[in-house]
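FW: tagging you since you asked about this chain on Friday. Here's the raw sequence from the shared folder, copied in full. Didn't touch anything.
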Amino acid sequence: MDDVKLLIAAEIPRLRRFALSLAGDPDAADDLVQDCLERAIRKRHLWRRYGSIRGWLYRILYNVFLNQASRRRKARLEVDFEEPGVTLSEPARQEQQMICDDIVQAMRALPGEQRAALALTALEGFSYDEAAGVLRVPIGTLRSRIARGRERLRELHVEPPARVALRRVK
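HL: got it, structure written out here
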């Protein structure tokens, strides 16, 4: 296995976390990561070996996410019927779990551009410059998306726990 494949493999957990924040569904996130990895391995010769492979992979994943928008819209229209007689378990009662669930629901309510900007900066720790590069937008646009996303989260009355706080990264 060549060095690029090893570098790509090391980023899989982070890619999955970012994909989950974008897609909101574990199965869709896995598909997104798989499509990203397939494309990255097939086009690994295009990576310029200066700079981080992480940013290059995140850009691929985000582009795949955007390209699959029509498929996601169609999938949302499908009705998922539960099997009769199957009872759902009770939701967790732990306060931390409930806070995390609130954050996940609020993030899902954000438009994709805001969700991606917040996920890259607040969750993945990218600087504004790095995140703007991944999303291929000017830094002012990124800052605008982050500000609007934070404001929307405040409107939804989400108080993130200290370790998942939506911090400013520059």
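FW: The chain is about 65% helix and 0% strand.
HL: agreed, and Residues 81 and 134 are 37 Å apart (CA to CA).
FW: great, closing this out.
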